[in-house]
Design a protein that fits this description.
Low-confidence stretches of chain A: 326-341
Distance between the termini of chain A: 17 Å
CATH superfamily of the largest domain in chain B: Cyclophilin-like
Number of helices of chain A: 4
CATH class of the largest domain in chain B: Mainly Beta
Mean pLDDT of chain B: 94
Number of strands of chain A: 22
Oligomer: heterodimer
Order of helices and strands of chain A: EEHEEEEEEEEEEEHEEEEEEEHEHE
CATH architecture of the largest domain in chain B: Beta Barrel
Strand order of the largest sheet of chain B: 13-10-11-8-7-14-5-16
CATH topology of the largest domain in chain B: Cyclophilin
Radius of gyration of chain B: 19 Å
Radius of gyration of chain A: 22 Å
Low-confidence stretches of chain B: none
Shape of chain A: globular
Largest sheet of chain B: 8 strands, mixed
Largest sheet of chain A: 7 strands, mixed, barrel
Helix content of chain A: 10-25%
Chain lengths: 341, 247
């Protein structure tokens, strides 16, 4: 039998996302994929599975879900209130969801995009080599009430694990490298850009987010006469009125507005996750510094699985406490998994 | 001379953390457009292991690579060496190019800004239709949205600016004009370009083996058709368009 997840009630911006489809830039198609790529890695680490598996991305809030057969789930990204049949469950953790139970995921308490991962991943149709919806391009769709997704085969049983998520849900300082058109901006404008605090605007989606400076907008001599040029996620384009936009995974592939710089890939989740009103600042680093930072982060991400730990449960939350072997102060260590058979 | 390899062009710049842009000019011209396409082709054939993706824009070649596997200076060295191999400005256009004839309606609600565009170009509406519908334009680049072509160059009279305000939503298949170029939209989109005609040509077909209808270097004539004929073309993904290989 093919396991399925049913979306009983969908939040406003829910779609299937994996690491996206690179390779179509020449044809005007940006790669798409989860706007917080780190969340996919954290979910994969929690479930001990391939980070290329697709998950559900939930913008702003989650929804209600049920599975056709017992399924391992993990929750990462923007923390949201979550419960199974009314019992609160931890975020940044893996859980077991049994057939007939209802998983409820509410509004984000910080950040913008939460992720629901399934043991075995979402096993949907690939379009051009990926499952990621690309809403601007008309690939895939927003999921709605009653939609179902197919779940891939899961060979593992471990749940009850947690991971300490990299903080990225409340804005902060992100690193940026000079790019194509940075030199079109006067040094004084670059210095002012670094010294400025920005508020994430209410206008933002998977294509990009608008950030409002606490002072004047940013100007360049080149102005609007810049020839349309390639755009990549992370680019900070300065629009006609001087307000910057940071581009994300579903951005257009070319643009005529000058780019003041480009956010380091490792810091882009912090921009994507900043909610409306969150404060962001930018700090230029050299390419050499950027390479060193990304190298260190690549190593950390490769070893994420090592930072996964069993959840320590409060005895009050354990319904069947008496069935646990407590006399010696230790258990066989499989209590959290043994109900999966 | 614009079309000579000089001390100024081409320029090699880094683009973001993991890209390079090789620019053959700072304004659109045909030799620079050909150079960008030919250099991308050469880069693909060179098969550098760290290169993950290449593309072209109007007068530039872009590449994305893995800076953790191959450092920026080493990549710059490879690019400089490849650039020195020839004068890219006299490169030929890509092989296997096609000429497409795309039926287009230039009247009524299918062309809401045709009169206004004609006026900006100093033409009557009839003259504008005659000019646009007989111009053989080339795909200079694909970009912005999936499969979306920028085509040119139109006669000099069409050097009209984009609007300062955006159209709320121009439909998929909409033909729009500005700055001696035509664009054709794969999906409905807001735009500052003036909507002067309508096609039923599907530029992006993600569910098929050939998801992108046009390639840079292809040529297109947007031939005039009637609303009645157009109505019958709606269910054809090519929207009544026909093509032949030209080179």
């Amino acid at each position: 039998m093919n396991r399925t997840l049913t979306v009983l009630r969908a939040g406003p911006a829910m779609s299937v996302q994996d690491q996206g489809r690179a390779g179509y830039l020449a044809f005007g198609l940006s790669r798409s994929g989860a706007v917080d790529g780190l969340a996919l890695l954290e979910g994969a680490a929690l479930l001990g599975q391939d980070p290329r598996l697709a998950a559900l991305e939930m913008g702003g809030m989650g929804g209600e879900f049920a599975v056709s057969e017992t399924t391992r789930v993990a929750l990462t990204g923007a923390p949201m209130r979550a419960s199974i049949d009314g019992v609160n469950i931890q975020w940044n953790a893996s859980h077991l969801l049994e057939a007939g139970q209802r998983l409820s995921i509410g509004a984000a308490t910080s950040g913008s995009y939460g992720y629901l991962h399934l043991g075995g991943g979402i096993n949907g149709a690939e379009v051009l080599g990926a499952q990621s919806a690309h809403l601007a391009a008309g690939i895939g769709k927003m999921l709605g009430d009653g939609d179902t997704v197919s779940i891939g085969p899961d060979t593992q049983t471990l749940t009850g694990q947690k991971i300490a998520a990299e903080p990225r849900f409340d804005g902060g300082t992100v690193r940026i490298v000079p790019s194509l058109q940075t030199e079109f901006f006067a040094r004084s404008e670059i210095a002012r850009f670094e010294a400025t605090s920005f508020k994430r605007d209410t206008r933002g989606n998977r294509m990009g987010v608008r950030i409002i400076p606490d002072g004047d907008g940013f100007k360049t001599e080149a102005g609007l006469s810049v020839l349309s040029e390639v755009i990549v996620p992370g680019d900070v384009q300065v629009t006609g009125d001087g307000t910057p936009f940071v581009l994300l995974s579903e951005c257009q592939t070319t643009g005529g507005y000058p780019r003041i710089g480009s956010v380091l890939p490792m810091d882009l989740p912090c921009v994507a996750q900043a909610r409306a009103g969150a404060t962001l600042q930018f700090q230029f680093v050299t390419l050499q510094e950027a390479v060193a930072l990304e190298r260190r982060e690549a190593v950390r991400r490769k070893t994420l699985r090592g930072s996964v730990q069993p959840m320590i449960r409060n005895p009050h939350d354990i319904a069947d406490l008496l069935s646990y072997q407590l006399i010696s102060g230790a258990t066989a260590g499989d209590d959290l998994e043994r109900d999966i058979s | 001379m614009k079309n000579m390899q000089t001390a100024t062009w081409p320029k090699v710049k880094t683009a973001g953390f993991d890209g390079f842009l090789i620019s053959f000019g700072d304004q659109l011209n045909e030799p620079a457009n050909r150079a960008a396409l030919a250099f991308r082709d050469a880069l693909e054939r060179a098969g550098l292991a760290a290169v993950q993706e290449t593309s072209t824009s109007l007068v530039s070649t872009y590449l994305r690579f893995d800076p953790l596997a191959f450092d920026h200076e080493a990549m710059r060295g490879e690019l400089t060496a490849l650039l020195a191999e020839r004068n890219w400005f006299d490169a030929d256009l890509p092989k296997g190019r096609k000429l497409w004839r795309v039926p287009t309606v230039y009247e009524g609600d299918f062309a809401p800004q045709l009169d206004e565009a004609a006026q900006a170009a100093g033409l009557t509406t009839a003259e504008a239709i005659a000019s646009i519908s007989t111009s053989r334009v080339r795909v200079q680049t694909i970009g912005f949205a999936p499969g979306m072509p920028y085509l040119g160059a139109l006669p000099e009279v069409w050097n009209i600016p984009r609007q300062t305000a955006l159209n709320a939503q121009t439909p998929a298949g909409g033909l729009c004009v500005a700055i001696r170029q035509l664009v054709l939209f794969p999906v409905a989109t807001p735009t500052g370009w003036r909507h002067i005609g309508q096609t039923a040509f599907r530029l992006f077909r993600p569910e098929t083996d050939a998801p992108f209808a046009l390639r840079p270097g292809d040529e297109v004539v947007f031939e005039q058709t009637t609303p009645e004929a157009f109505a019958k073309m709606q269910n054809d993904p090519d929207g009544g368009a026909v093509n032949e290989v030209i080179a």
